[in-house]
Design goal:
The protein is an alpha/beta fold and 342 residues long. The protein is built from eight helices and 17 strands.
Length: 342
């Protein structure tokens, strides 16, 4: 889809489950609001489901100027075919210039199907989005107000900026937790457009017999303090030190991918590029070397304390306070000092 006018809205695809908005949808409204203001266009939230009208007001309070609420009983449970059909139809009718999705299992499934149908580019797992200009090498033609789609590449060893200057809309999925959630404003007013999609059972090749929802064991994004352990902890038995320090601080327990892969703690506790992105007031890294993939998920913590026996560990590059020493000695001393203060 080529659009020489490039005046369309910025869209956020608002994900919901059984009438409850996904946290990442509200986070995306924060960045979407910034992009729309920069471009001088509206911010539109698109919500698909069986009962989504009730969510529309919440989307407006969190920054949307307009909400496209597509309701149909066949959208009650996510399926790729009907969701993609409805969204492609809306894109073709309203012609947005930017569409962003959460990099959730639903977003990662839906976004490429819609992008392919619209002949548009798609950048996955972005950690930031900006507006800027671009000039192709060997050309003097400047393409203005493009979406800079920023994401880690080559295993997280570089940060790539991707632009798409000749296919519209520009599409991206954005990781959870990398954008701040906007505060709701009860005074905001917006347009709510209720849509009845043209769907039939033929559009739903899968029949959902039963759904089971499992709550996450820990909400790392909401934790003010996180104590995370890495491969340097040494064993599942030794990981008890991480739990003990977390309990002493009233913190949530986190982990690096290495600790999760070793089976020392559940994946719900994983912090990093392939885990959860967090912004706590205090992040204590115990036995974590600090590979760039992990730092991408915790680098914006207000205070970072690192405990590692290797004085050259990369984690010390981002730590505000570093302790070089054996965690088997350091952590018990910290716990004892905390308990004495309490």
């Amino acid at each position: 889809m080529i659009d020489v006018n490039r005046q369309g809205d910025v869209w956020v695809v608002a994900e919901q489950n059984d009438g409850r908005l996904h946290e990442v949808s509200l986070e995306l409204l924060s960045k979407g609001r910034e992009l729309a203001d920069r471009l001088g266009v509206r911010l539109t939230a698109v919500s698909l489901g069986a009962k989504v009208s009730d969510q529309a007001a919440a989307l407006v309070r969190h920054g949307a100027d307009r909400v496209l609420a597509a309701e149909h009983e066949l959208l009650a449970h996510y399926q790729t075919n009907p969701y993609a059909k409805v969204l492609v139809g809306l894109v073709e009718e309203h012609r947005p210039q930017i569409v962003i999705y959460g990099a959730t299992p639903v977003g990662r499934d839906l976004a490429p199907r819609v992008a392919s149908a619209c002949w548009a580019g798609l950048t996955a797992d972005c950690t930031d989005l900006e507006i800027g200009d671009h000039v192709e090498p060997g050309s003097t033609e400047k393409h203005g107000n493009l979406l800079y789609q920023i994401r880690p590449a080559f295993g997280g060893n570089i940060i790539a900026t991707i632009v798409n200057f000749n296919r519209w809309p520009q599409m991206a999925t954005v990781r959870e937790g990398v954008m701040p959630r906007p505060e709701p404003d009860a005074s905001r007013r917006g347009e709510i457009v209720r849509i009845r999609p043209d769907l039939s059972p033929k559009d739903c090749p899968i029949r959902v017999l039963e759904t089971r929802l499992a709550e996450r064991k820990v909400d790392l994004k909401a934790a003010r303090i996180i104590v995370a352990g890495g491969a340097g902890v040494g064993s599942k038995e030794n990981f008890k030190l991480v739990w003990d320090l977390a309990h002493a601080l009233g913190a949530a327990a986190g982990a690096s991918r290495a600790a999760v892969d070793n089976g020392w703690i559940d994946k719900d506790h994983q912090v990093g590029q392939t885990g959860t992105t967090v912004r706590p007031a205090l992040y204590v890294a115990v036995g974590i070397s600090g590979a760039i993939q992990h730092r991408a998920g915790m680098g914006e913590a207000q205070k970072i304390v690192a405990i590692n026996s290797d004085p050259h560990a990369p984690i010390f590059e981002v730590a505000h306070y570093g302790v070089v020493g054996d965690l088997n000695r350091v952590v018990p001393m910290m716990i004892d000092a905390i308990k004495k203060r309490v």
